[in-house]
Structure prediction request, 248 residues.
Amino acid sequence: MRYDRIGRTYASTRSTDPSIAKQISDALGSAERVVNVGAGTGSYEPGDRFVIAVEPSHTMLVQRPDGSARATRAAAEALPFRDDAFDAALATLTLHHWRDIDAGLREMQRVAPRQVVFYFEPDWAERLWLVGEYFPAVKALESERLAPGGERLSTILDTRRIEAVLVPADCRDGFGGCFWNRPEAYLDPVVQDGISFFAQLDAESRLRGTQRLRADLASGAWDERHGHLRAAATLDIGYRLLVAGHLS
Prediction:
């Protein structure tokens, strides 16, 4: 499992951001029974509903905090539940790591009439200064290169709407674009280890990009190009929330 290798620090760097959590909760609507597919350490699992988490990585499962939803070890492509066992199937920032995305999406459809997917549009990667200017090798990673966008997802799912997920300036999660206005955070190796594309980069590319970013912050070059971001409240950097299936 990929996350048995790269997900060892997620509990210390990844958490639920309240504004994103509210958007996901609103998308789940009246669903009372939710399966969280590719659940990881449990971010964005609603606390006011019955939730079962599904996660294939033992490394991720053991990092789930006390009080988390009951979890079962399984893959998205073979969910161990009967048809329509849940009201909604949730997947957050996970599809780009699935072995068979289409099969996983069909399994989400099988076990629940509604699907809610938090994902990123892959063609936005170049627009994020972190990738475009410092870590361009990210674009060649299989998990990023083959990541599904909304158009691809909609070939399987009965998409009802796709919403932009604006990343707040004080975002509490540690996903790839979280620190768009706090570039110093990306110098921290623990933060890097909690971001899957950093954890997959070869050591040379990771070191080279980190050194370039450190130098640009020290010289003021980063602020000359992007300093205006420090005053922004939110930013659209390609994260999306797709709602599909039968809605109440």
Remarks:
- The first strand starts at residue 33 and ends at 37.
